[in-house]
Amino acid sequence: MQPLADRIRPDSLDDIVGQQHLIGKGKPLRKIIDSGVIPNLIFYGPSGVGKTTLATYIAKRTNMTLKKLNGTTASTADLKEIFKELEGFGGLGGILLYLDEIQYFNKKQQQTLLEYIENGRITLIASTTENPYFYVYNAILSRSTVFEFKPVEKQDVEKAVTRAFDILSKENNVDVVLGEDTARIISLGCGGDVRKAINSAELSFLATDVSDGKKTITAETARELTQKSSMRYDKDGEEHYDIMSAYQKSMRGSDTDAALYYLGRLLSAGDLISACRRLMVCACEDVGLAYPNIIPIVKSCVDIAMSVGLPEARIPLADAVILVCNSPKSNSGEKAIDAVMADIRSGNVGSVPRQLQNMHYDGEDNNNKGQHYLYPHDFENHYVPQQYLPDNLAGKRYYEYGENKNEQAFKTYWEKIKDKIY
Question: Is 127 helix (H, G, I), strand (E, B) or coil?
Fold first, then answer.
């Protein structure tokens, strides 16, 4: 038997839950579908949000023959079989090819489609959970329109869950009674993934016995069987990098609550390494010289977390995240080294000044014998002016003191010492 998620695919655009920014009345994609002239499309978004449902609906609205392939299992030979059908009766109205997970097709496989989508004999609707601008061949992208699908809001998921129970009731000729919070628990637990919510509804139905001629689906049963997809993500997928990015940006932005939330997302997925790595980077990059003591403190918290492991690791990491969020911020160190690296990449380099070289002897051809290095500790305040940068970079400033109290204290100290000399 087909999965319930396939059996209940809607018959109209108005029955599709979510994606109203694309298929709501007056929205661009809905107008394209209603026109009946379907261009090549790429649907981009997380799993279970309606990409396949919408592609199937579009195919029904056209006279084209629908063919489905999945990039994880399909081969070039599968494509060639579809191309052969274009020569027979099946290809008279054209073929609509729905290619799920196109990111798993390599460049050569994607290139084989070009000739057919260019002449219009095949209309491509491709879907991907990854950013198509990274994973889809440019020539395919230039011939397609990309639409981004978003996670479905919980109130819309709840509508799909209720509809799923109605269909299960009719298919099995049994009354279904939902507990007060059953549909809500399922919709909340599946993180905007309608397919998983429907699967959870079906599991809850199967796990409930008939009593007095009806099945009463309790909130407890729903809670036990609902997949907590909102707590998980593919560590190799784009959402993984989005969460890590939000984690660090929240710490940089001094939003303690948001930073702790994204830390929780990482730890719930078991991604202790990423949580620790980004935390240490943030301590150095975003707090840095405004509070340099934070660096060994955060490192100690990370060491403890790695030693005790999850779930206890959440405690030292939470302490460190809160400390980073509430510390003064300075990226002067990062800006300074980035300016240096930019010069090096552009070829703006020079020879090490003679007084800094590791000189042990002078050649006979050297008329300026001696290293001429001035040892700072031999002078007052352990400082003496001398040239350290190469000749062509002499006088260049890479580091600028931050406005925080710590760096301004450094600045005052050194200005006082250098002013005595200059």
Answer: strand
Closest by alpha carbon to 122, among 72, 62, 77, 73? 62
Mapped onto helix, strand or coil, the DSSP state of residue 41 is strand
The per-residue pLDDT for 239 is 67
Q: What is the pLDDT of residues 386-417, one digit of tens each?
A: 998 998 999 899 999 999 999 999 999 999 98
Our CA angle for 182, 149, 42, nearest 5°, is: 140
Nearest to 195 by CA among 22, 26, 47: 47
| Torsion sign (Cα): 93, 99, 103, 107 | negative
The rounded distance, in Å, linking the Cα atoms of 81 and 59 is 19
The structure tokens listed for 353 are 């000044």
Residue type, 169: S
How many CA within 13 A on the CB side of residue 250? 21
Q: How far is CA 20 from the centre of its chain?
A: 23
DSSP string for residues in 227-274: --GGG---TTSHHHHHHHHHHHHHHHTT-HHHHHHHHHHHHHTT-HHH
Q: Other C-beta atoms within 10 Å of 134: how many?
A: 9
The C-alpha angle with vertex 331 and arms to 326 and 336, in degrees rounded to 5, equals 160
Q: What angle do CA 19, 21, 24 make, to 5 degrees?
A: 80
Name the residue with tokens 């219009």. Answer: 120
What is the tens place of the pLDDT at every residue in 287-302?
A: 999 999 999 999 999 9
Which range is least confidently modeled, 20-29, 53-62, 76-85?
53-62
For 84, the enclosing helix (H) or strand (E) is: helix 76-85
CA distance 337 to 341: 6
Judged by phi (left if over 0) then psi (alpha if -120 to 50, else beta), residue 352 lies in beta
210: how many CB neighbours lie within 10 A of its CB?
A: 11
Instruction: State the Cα angle at 34 between 115 and 101, rounded to 5°.
Output: 45
pLDDT of residue 259: 94
**C-alpha distance from residue 335 to each of 254, 259, 341 (Å):** 19, 23, 10
